[in-house]
């Protein structure tokens, strides 16, 4: 499992050899955690258990960094490598506000007193 950070996104990657795309489940819990889980099909789970007596399962939960766009999360699975892209949430800088007008009149005599 790997994690990489760029200026625009956070990238999570996992090597899942032998897992079919349909067996991968991704979800976001409480807008704070990314959960990656494999759910083997019943036939595949039975075959795997008969092969060596073990069932292959991947289940990881990661706390997401602050200020991410949860709705923009995407994933790609190619040749046994899962890559989850979590975009940063960018806030636009607020423009400076200038003051117009002369303001209250200042009497030079009042300032001198």
Automatic annotation (TrEMBL):
Membrane-traversing stretches: none
A Pfam cross-reference name: HSP20
The entry's keywords: Stress response
SUPFAM superfamilies given in the database record: HSP20-like chaperones
Signal peptide range: none
SHSP domain boundaries: 1-103
InterPro entries in alphabetical order: A-crystallin/Hsp20_dom, HSP20-like_chaperone, Small_HSP
PROSITE patterns: SHSP (PS01031)
Family from the record: Belongs to the small heat shock protein (HSP20) family.
Protein name, as recorded: SHSP domain-containing protein
